Amino acid sequence: MAIYQCNRCNYKFESSAEKAPKVCPYCSEAGSVSKERSAEQLLESIDEAEESRENRFKKR
Ligand SMILES: [Zn+2]
Q: What is the C-alpha separation between 49 and 53, in angstroms, rounded?
């Protein structure tokens, strides 16, 4: 099982890890469902965002 999240309504649900659902079971939006990011991946993306912000300041 894997946790998926709808990008449209932020509805979270569990589904089979092999067969990713294409339609959100809550709002029925197609193509809005993606696998929820793990906490580690989330931290990485925050680090990257902060890095690029710092780089922008250095350029000025
Ligand atoms: Zn949805």
A: 6
